[in-house]
Amino acid sequence: MSGVNRISGAGRLTPARTARFTFDGRTLTALEGDTVASALIANDIHLVGRSFKYHRPRGILSAGAEEPNALLDVSRDAARRQPNVRATVQEVFDGMNVSSQNRWPSLAFDVGGFNDLLSPFFAAGFYYKTFMWPKAAWHNLYEPFIRRAAGLGVAPTEPDPDHYASRYTHCDVLVVGAGVAGLAAALAAAKAGAKVIICDEQPEVGGALHYDSGTVVDGKPGYTWAQETGKALAGMDNVTVLTRTTAFGYYNHNFVGLVERVTDHLAAIDKTLPRERLWQVRAKKVILANGAIERHMVFANNDRPGIMLASAGRTYLNHFGVSVGKQVGIYAAHDSAYEAAFDLKKAGVAVAVIVDCRERPGEAVLAEARSLGIEVLTGHSVVNTTGKLRIASITVARNGGGGARKIAVDALLVSAGWTPSVHLFSQSRGKVKFDAATERFLPGTYAQDCLSIGACNGTDDLQATIDEALAAGELAARAAGAEGGGQVALTGQNAFEWTGGMIGAAEGAGPDTTVKAFIDFQHDVCAKDIRLAVREGMHSVEHIKRFTTNGMASDQGKLSNMHGLAIAAEALGKGIPEVGLTTFRQPYTPVTFGAIVNHSRGSLFDPARKTPMHAWEEAQGAEFEDVSNWKRAWFYPKAGENMHEAVARECKTVREVAGVFDASTLGKIEVVGPDAAKFLNLMYTNAWDNLKPGRCRYGIMLRDDGFVYDDGVVGRLAEDRFHVTTTTGGAPRVLHHMEDYLQTEFPHLKVWLTSTTEQWAVIAVQGPKAREIIAPLVEGIDLSNEALPHMSVAEGRICGVPTRLFRMSFTGELGFEVNVPADYGQAVWEAIWARAEPMGACAYGTETMHVLRAEKGYIIVGQDTDGTVTPHDAGLSWVVSKKKPDFVGIRGLKRPDLVKDGRKQLVGLRTKDPKVVLEEGAQIVADPNEPKPMTMLGHVTSSYWSPNCGRSIALALVAGGQARLGQTLYVPMADRTIAVEVSDMVFFDKEGGRLHG
Amino acid sequence: MADQAMAIRKAPLAGLRGGSHAAILTPAAPASRISLRAAKDAVPALSAALGVTLPLRPKTSASSGKRHALWLGPDEWLVIDEDGADLMAAAASSGALHSAVDVSHRNTAVIVSGPGAEVAINSGCPQDLSLGLFPVGACSRTVLGKAEIVLFRTSEDTFRLECWRSFSPFVFGLLSEGAEDAAH
Amino acid sequence: MLLIYCPYCEEERSELEFRNAGDAHIARPTNIAEITDEEFEAYFFLRDNPKGVIFERWRHIHGCGRFFNAARDTVSDRFLTTYQAGEPKPDLNAQPKTSATLETYDEALEGAAQ
Hints:
The complex is a heterotrimer of chains A (997), B (184) and C (114).
Chain A: E1 18-23, E2 26-31, H1 36-42, E3 49-50, E4 57-58, E5 71-75, E6 81-86, E7 96-99, H2 114-117, H3 126-130, H4 137-149, E8 164-176, H5 180-191, E9 196-199, E10 216-217, E11 220-221, H6 222-234, E12 239-242, E13 245-251, E14 255-261, E15 276-288, E16 292-295, E17 307-309, H7 310-318, E18 327-332, H8 336-346, E19 350-356, H9 363-371, E20 376-378, E21 380-386, E22 393-398, E23 405-408, E24 411-415, E25 417-420, H10 423-427, E26 431-435, E27 440-445, E28 450-452, H11 462-479, E29 492-493, E30 518-520, E31 525-526, H12 527-535, H13 541-548, H14 561-572, H15 576-579, H16 593-597, H17 614-619, E32 623-627, E33 630-635, H18 643-656, E34 659-662, E35 667-672, H19 676-683, E36 696-702, E37 708-718, E38 721-726, H20 731-744, E39 752-755, E40 760-766, H21 770-774, E41 778-779, E42 792-798, E43 801-807, E44 815-821, H22 825-836, E45 842-844, H23 846-855, H24 896-899, E46 904-911, E47 923-925, E48 936-946, E49 951-959, E50 968-972, E51 977-983
Helix pairs in contact in A: 5-6, 5-11, 7-8, 8-9, 12-13, 12-14, 18-23
Chain B: E1 18-19, E2 24-27, E3 32-37, H1 43-50, E4 61-64, E5 67-73, E6 76-81, H2 87-92, E7 99-102, E8 107-113, H3 117-121, E9 139-144, E10 147-155, E11 158-164, H4 168-182
Antiparallel strand pairs in B: 1-2, 2-8, 3-6, 3-7, 4-5, 5-6, 8-11, 9-10, 10-11
Chain C: E1 3-6, E2 11-14, E3 19-23, H1 37-44, E4 53-59, E5 67-73, E6 79-84, H2 105-113
Antiparallel strand pairs in C: 1-2, 3-4, 4-5, 5-6
């Protein structure tokens, strides 16, 4: 037997197909298709958790995604454990382990329950007021304490072993919700020929037809019709039916996020299956058929385990074959709850009483109740309940007092009516309007191309819902361009017409300030808390929400918002529409991080860009550093060397013999066209028309505000063709910047830009022996100083493949940069290395490159500049043309702030103690004894130990720096103050003779 | 230099195979490619010189044997020659004003084929790849996850997917995961 | 995620292919070297940041690569129109809206019926 409360012959599950699971260590039997909630109730377990704030015993309230109470920890193994799973959504699988949360030492005896006795001190706003003083106590006392006590569930500590999938998809019509409205709409749209996606969060289609036993559609029981229709839809080529799929977010321009739970219900996981699949749907039309959510009644002690929504009671009985109790009471303000009593009574369950706070319920349900012999107390309210871990009795009184009577029950089904589910509509930025007659918010002004149908649109009658759905489905399909001919006609009928509904507190929920009549179960917000918020001066619904935290839990107030709003409106003496509703935000229900992160983890987190020579560098034992998305060889340690030693060796070797360096990551842009030189004249500060083909020039690029944006060497290959280089990190934005000016400011120029960063592998060979190393490999290029002087470029061949050979240097040595088509990069590198190594040359990485360039005072844009540095500040006035009528930045450079005295300028720093290496970023002052706050003159931008100078070297931005040459300044550090002398920026080979070797 | 062996070519995805029965991933053989830029009035001369009619409609391509011209923008085409012919020389012979830049080694390509090719690519590409909107011969620059790609449909269930070489391991990896999901 | 009509690709594409490039119709003065500080400030720094319709530039950076202009409502994120760079600012009152604002459910149904 799969639980004492399972009623033989009831429900739709197969008795023979059982699954075993544990709950808090106890092994239980369920049926396949059970949710954790239905299986627990079948086993007569209602107590499943402790509440967030007061640690009150809590049970299962609903049978759907709106569940605020039954949040459990579900696991299949150590790594696959998830807290805060809604028991009403999670399906049971064989071997699953379920634990309750927020209780210690046990669910039945929870020490935290003490909070309930102290609850007068835990009123709304308690935390805001209490833990304000003393300020210092917040960090080390209050916050750690609150964090330990608060929170639901414990996050898993192991990495997620599952994988997740993602699909972008497009459709004509997306239907959200596969209840009667959604199915009818999807059918109409599909028959009209539209490409349709219909999704539903439940394991199978049907929505409310799961419980609504009296409904007939197309002459069949509603549930049967739904399953047949779902099957028919799934069989159509133009329809995708997604079950276990929640539409969690409605974003701009009909972009809807769905998450499909693929394996969470399976006992054995096919490891190739993703755990969840994220569908990113762009729909021409969206049809919202989200249905409605039943509200609970707000009265004293309405949170005891065993108190549930009436529709949930019907779902457990009619679908799962489980009775919620043996002696069930009903407390309602809406006719729909009566049908729960009818279903239970007909299934042989004792119905103790129907308490209806209305004087006049619907006549049809009243008549049926009488004919079934169920006692109905109209004009009465449930004013209290008893029962420690489960409801034991209700106290019923006539409205206005009197005639109090205690009735024994072991379950109480409640219904205050139905709240149309306008969450997705609201997320789409649609504006809801309040319908005073039915006291509910309905879709009002549409902001996107969507339609709401059925219960979420306030349409109550079944035939009206079907008609509305069929019309919407066909219209949406037609509007999306579908031209198929199929038409659908359907009839539907409910067993009873429903009337009634109330929002806010029922009798017995106050005005007493000690009565706990819960509105928001997950955050333990009571009616009295809303009233308190108003008394404390909160007049805006947004303030009330934050003060009380009503609706701020993970269920986002699906049950509580309307009640809270009504109570606030009453306390404020305003109408509900004047108080207004808070905005619904994505996601509708919680979404796993796994689904959101999806493929973006591990090696797919971010592209790791590697150069053509990467494999060789790795084999040589290089350490790598990240430069934008690139992995660059940082230094090449030999056995036993640390970084400092390796870099020192590389620095010395390059200047004494030669070094080989992978410069492939440098950005490259080919600028081609008759106006190429004119365009570069505008993009760079210096002049380009006088540069001869075969020669190179260093260029500085500014933004129009006058600040340095990028720099690089530009080679002219032909009259109409330039090879532009950029910084590694700057390549994409420099091309974007150039395209921007070319397309929108200088579109008359005949010139085109093409990124060639990855076309060329770049092998820099630098040092006195550089020429000797490459000479035998090169064909068709005269490498002599006369034919190929410093800052020139020639095309020829190397190792039999084409090369653009640059004579240039970022080290201050005789140097070449060998560009070859990237697929040849490694082979040419190896050929060069085969010559370089025997001569005593080394391979060097970016760290050595940085030291060598700093020895020569060459700046790195982005390290020595920070977006507020002009070429003049950087000591590069020689690069700025004084003759050109225009270039980007020409006007910016004349701005008053950019020409005034005292600007921070780049200078060299020499520490008085040559062995001390400054920290990059360290601040610089003139008077180390000045009281704080000290006048800071600038900061160190680059700092290294220079093996070739035998001392530390540094570059720094210093206010009025160029006028301070020779001055002593100070760098105050935590443990000492370092004296430095301001110097020029060139530390090595000041005459520059080595370049021309 | 005569005694020097010619450098050996090494393609970024050389030797890789992957995908699923629904979507097979194969690195494309090396090909020559140019990024071709020109105004409309140069198109006839360039088409004649290249032996393939440069398409003028967005998202379309033209092929002549193993040579393909893909519209990427109103003045931009990616011209691919799978036989490795000298496209720079061919374009230069047109005599028309244009910019041709050799990007043979900048790009590399993955062939995605099989009934699940669309789904595999849609794991990271937001475009609608249904045959109605992306028919055989359609091409577009777009994105795949965090990489930029050029997508070219060569048959109902085959796409040529071009990307920059350093992004190719990322692209191949993401396509592999997409191909696995496409098999379900 | 926005869906943006590229006037060069003549198709709506996902926002992922685009990059916003700030306000449109701000021409760089051809005599920029001579303009006053105030004129430069107006050209380079000052922007309106309107609540409502903004004319802005987008680049189809991962598509055709072109810059173009758009009129977008910053409240609803609705694009009123997009047009090629260099074209004059359109008269939005004369423009047929790309998709009309639907005021009510009935209008939505009527719109779908059309």
